[in-house]
Amino acid sequence: QVQLVESGGGSVQAGGSLRLSCLASGASPSMGWFRQAAGKEREAVAVINKRGNPAYADSVKGRFAISKDNAESTLYLQMSSLVPEDTAMYYCAADRFCSGSFDLWGQGTQVTVSS
Question: Bridge-partner residues for 66, per DSSP?
């Protein structure tokens, strides 16, 4: 059974960087990072399809980079120029069946950006 385990969250000052990792115990064609801030709905941050093509939310374009290491079954999210508005719980997710719907989720890792 595929499982997703995130790591790399933490507290950082505005302008800083963090790299999130998501270890997947099985292969998934499409994966992504989502986030949910307190009192807000969950939103997609970045996704990468089976061809390795990324897509980003407008709010993180130019600051975040998603990548996937198939050999290590790990998904990454490199976050730079962080702002307080990036504070949220970040979740890794997988679309295991190419359905267009992310059906498997990790437990989340907290990112806190202070001004």
Answer: 77
